[in-house]
User: Which sequence fits this backbone?
């Protein structure tokens, strides 16, 4: 097996910021960082074909191990030749471990774990809970049909290995901001133990499948809002032979920059860092400023399917009556397929008529907008103008919200 995975840093700002540019090399191509990774949860980016995803200049796609395990099954994807062949995406791919979905969907919290208040996995009454954590793994019930399943670190590695992504994540325990400090400590220890088991299982899988492309394994940094826990786990996992690191867990938006900095000050500088689940522009700037190289989020297509589109003055909603006879593109200087070919009035009509094409056109624009933003940030780092771009861009985007 050739280790066709590497990361090189090409530009760094310094002067109190950890922002840098670089290149991640995988068996299926390179990723110029910082980069926004488009989410294709079920081996598809919602409302978009892979050709459309390439058209918005996406460098990589992230699929979801939990969802693909439940449907259609990781063995089927393996038999199809892996994720790249199955979904006709020939560029780099990521898969998450399934840990977030096992605990959030399995606990009945649908899309997100509560980050601000209310119930948590641990203090939800057992008769209402659908996910149960122990030191060996997590037992949960499918959100699709209610059937009982169990994830362990070993199974998560087997699923992701079969799916065949270039970059995988270790199985971890997700907590919420409402879980007490003592429980955060226990969960972090489980995550450390599971990280060791993930590394051991991947060694076995690589040895038993010598002809497979190398699949990089990233650890996941938890610890909620606690600086001591974030630094402790970063030091611990940073000493283990992971190929990179994902920063995840419960984070209040106001602290996102601080939490990323705590982690990245302890993690190995020369390994790539991925932020799980962000796409709001101010979060993107904060994450990149503190050393994040890649990040993913479902938001661009999700908000697009609900009628929201990105502009340099913030998000707008195409369903508004003012767009009924507005024959301008969604964004005047946007080079995406949607803006070059369709007007606000037409897309407004599609949404009012409940035509599926509207969801596709909005998804194309939103993905293109966020990817271009990150590309512009990368260029600004190389040119030494990151601070200027950040200040001007965010002032314009949030000016009507201040």
Assistant:
């Amino acid at each position: 097996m050739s280790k066709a995975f590497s990361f090189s840093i090409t530009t760094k700002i310094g002067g109190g910021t950890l922002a840098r540019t670089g290149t991640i090399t995988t068996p299926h191509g390179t990723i110029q960082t910082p980069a926004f990774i488009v989410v294709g949860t079920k081996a598809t980016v919602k409302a978009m074909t892979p050709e459309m995803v390439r058209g918005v200049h996406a460098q990589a796609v992230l699929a979801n191990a939990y969802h693909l395990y439940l449907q259609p099954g990781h063995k089927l994807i393996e038999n199809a030749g892996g994720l790249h062949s199955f979904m006709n995406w020939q560029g780099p791919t990521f898969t998450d471990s399934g840990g977030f979905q096992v605990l959030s969907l399995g606990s009945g919290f649908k899309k997100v774990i509560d980050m601000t208040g209310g119930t948590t996995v641990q203090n939800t009454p057992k008769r209402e809970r659908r996910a149960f954590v122990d030191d060996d793994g997590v037992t949960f019930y499918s959100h699709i049909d209610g059937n009982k399943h169990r994830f362990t670190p070993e199974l998560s590695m087997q699923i992701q290995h079969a799916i065949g992504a270039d970059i995988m994540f270790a199985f971890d325990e997700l907590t919420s901001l409402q879980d007490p400090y003592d429980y955060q400590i226990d969960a972090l220890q489980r995550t450390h133990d599971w990280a060791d088991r993930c590394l051991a299982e991947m060694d076995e899988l690589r040895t038993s499948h010598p002809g497979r492309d190398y699949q990089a394994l990233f650890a996941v940094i938890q610890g909620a809002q606690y600086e001591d826990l974030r630094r402790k786990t970063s030091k611990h996992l940073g000493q283990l032979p992971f190929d990179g690191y994902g920063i995840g867990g419960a984070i209040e938006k106001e602290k996102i920059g601080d939490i990323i900095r705590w982690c990245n000050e302890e993690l190995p500088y020369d390994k790539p860092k991925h932020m799980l689940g962000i796409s709001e522009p101010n979060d993107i700037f904060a994450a990149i400023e503190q050393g994040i190289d890649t990040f993913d989020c479902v938001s661009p297509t999700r908000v697009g399917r609900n009628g929201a589109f990105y502009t340099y003055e913030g998000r707008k909603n195409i369903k508004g009556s003012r767009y009924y006879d507005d024959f301008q593109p969604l964004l005047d200087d946007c080079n995406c397929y949607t803006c070059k070919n369709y007007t606000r009035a037409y897309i407004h009509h599609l949404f009012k008529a409940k035509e599926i094409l509207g969801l596709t056109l909005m998804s194309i624009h939103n993905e293109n907008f966020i990817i271009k933003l990150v590309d512009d940030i990368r260029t600004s780092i190389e040119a030494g103008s990151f601070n200027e771009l950040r200040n001007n861009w965010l002032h314009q985007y949030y000016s009507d919200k201040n």
Notes: The domain at 6-99+114-119+144-297 is CATH 3.20.20.105 (TIM Barrel). The first strand starts at residue 6 and ends at 14. The chain has two domains: 6-99+114-119+144-297, 308-401.
